[in-house]
TrEMBL record:
Recorded family membership: Belongs to the class-V pyridoxal-phosphate-dependent aminotransferase family. Csd subfamily.
Biological role: Catalyzes the removal of elemental sulfur and selenium atoms from L-cysteine, L-cystine, L-selenocysteine, and L-selenocystine to produce L-alanine.
Protein name per its UniProtKB record: Cysteine desulfurase
Cofactors, names only: pyridoxal 5'-phosphate
EC number assigned by the record: 2.8.1.7
SUPFAM superfamilies registered for this protein in UniProt: PLP-dependent transferases (SSF53383)
Length: 412
């Protein structure tokens, strides 16, 4: 695949042009939230200046225009993940809401005593906590697939659970947000389906960074957030296999999701409206559509190729920092996330010194406390890369880590 010049891409992002504490900004926290190119900011601005109205209800021009833009954004989402049917793409607030939707709607209707939900130790809390709530309510059980010492999933454990328990659903993150492991989702789906289980994929860290095709992966649910893929905060997506979504009860009740309401009860609207109660975030959906256009123009193969290069460079460069421990696999199955610790300096101290150098990284448990327990750490520092990061950013990170060592290091 062709690639692109990340320094040129960076020019499309106004926020990245500023200095922080008198230093140029090196933004290395895109796994938490990405920055937005001008085209996305302008799409939001244009929507509110020219097209804003509530959708579906109005018969006037503005409402029809807002409705058309909302539908068009949904079509873009469907093409981006190769969904066979745009009506199976439900707009939600974020990946967390999509995961709760599946747990509360599908889980409440389909889980009971004796049933198992299989998750993994690489999951973000948002793909753990909703299942803890629902399995407790329904008397079902959760099992967690462990990792090996490189941070790869132990598929032998998945097979064991699939063979020995009544597994109804396997929930797995496509890319681990704390370690960067790219999980073999198609392989996991094949094994789960052979045992009669559904597969829910958390695409929060994969959909922004690599081509994701729900048909090729042969999965049942995919969730992701717009704000991690150059889009606005407040918009996310649940894709589900149509027949499964059609059989599921609503998650939230209210306006727009009904066919008919009487004092005795209600009937539900067709997809996707059944799962979109209340006034949706139309402008944010339009902004997400603009982000998808931008990513598509870069080319998702090129986005992935760029990340493969920059993470390889980062792993090589950071390995030279004395006292560093790097976590996660080093191979083709590694996305643009690098978690590390430095001597016994607390990750929060690392992050705040880096901040004074203009380098923004995340420090903490990354909403993956079961994984931190497994790794035997309370927290890590994490640098994550995206389309606007170049080798220069990696160099600035590595140099700033030398400053951290000078301040905190052995003998300091
Ligand atoms: N899953 C993964 C793998 C994530 O990295 C995140 C965000 N850190 C989420 C889910 C939750 O995303 P959001 O906060 O946008 O709902």
């Amino acid at each position: 695949p062709g690639t692109f010049d990340a320094r040129k891409v960076k020019q499309d992002f106004p926020i990245l042009q500023q200095t922080i504490h008198g230093k140029p900004l090196t933004y290395l926290d895109s796994a938490a939230s990405s920055q937005k190119p001008s085209v996305v900011i302008e799409a939001l601005d244009a929507y509110y200046r020219a097209s804003n109205a509530n959708i579906h209800r109005g018969v006037y021009w503005l409402s029809e225009r807002a409705t058309a833009l909302y539908d068009e954004a949904r079509e873009k989402v469907a093409r981006f993940i190769n969904a066979p049917d745009a009506r199976s793409c439900v707009f939600v607030r974020n990946a967390t809401e999509a995961l709760n939707l599946v747990a509360y709607s599908w889980g409440r209707a389909n889980l009971g005593p004796g049933d198992t939900v299989v998750l993994t130790l690489l999951e973000h809390h948002s793909n753990i906590v909703p299942w803890q709530i629902i399995t407790a309510e329904r008397g079902a059980t959760i099992r967690y697939v462990d990792i090996d010492d490189d941070g790869r999933l132990r598929l032998d454990q998945l097979d064991h659970y699939l063979r020995t328990e009544r597994v109804k659903l396997v929930g797995v993150t496509h890319v681990a947000n704390a370690l960067g492991t790219i999980n073999p989702v198609a392989e996991i789906a094949a094994r789960a389906h052979a045992a009669g289980a559904l597969v829910l994929v958390d695409g929060a860290q994969s959909v922004p960074h690599m081509p994701v095709d729900v048909q090729a992966l042969d999965i049942d649910f995919l969730v992701f957030s717009g704000h991690k893929m150059l889009g606005p905060m407040g918009i996310g997506v649940l894709w589900g296999r149509r027949e499964i979504l059609e059989a599921m009860p609503p998650f939230l009740g209210g306006g727009d999701m009904i066919r008919e309401v009487t004092t005795c009860g209600s009937t539900w609207a067709d997809l996707p409206a059944k799962f979109e109660a209340g006034t949706p975030s139309v402008g944010d959906a339009v902004g997400l559509g603009a982000a998808i256009d931008y990513l598509t123009a870069l080319g998702m193969d090129a986005v992935r190729a760029h990340e493969r290069e920059i993470v390889a460079y980062a792993l090589e460069r950071l390995a030279q920092v004395p006292g560093i421990t790097l976590y996660g696999p080093t191979g083709e199955d590694r996305a643009g996330v690098v978690s590390f610790t430095l001597d016994d300096i607390h990750p929060h101290d690392i992050a705040s010194i880096l901040d004074s150098e203009g380098v923004a990284i995340r420090a903490g448990h990354h909403c993956a406390q079961p994984l931190m327990d497994r790794l035997g750490v309370v927290a890590t520092a994490r640098a994550s890369f995206y389309v606007y990061n170049s080798e220069e950013d990696v160099d600035r990170l590595a140099d700033a880590l030398q400053t951290v060592r000078r301040i905190f290091g052995p003998g300091a």
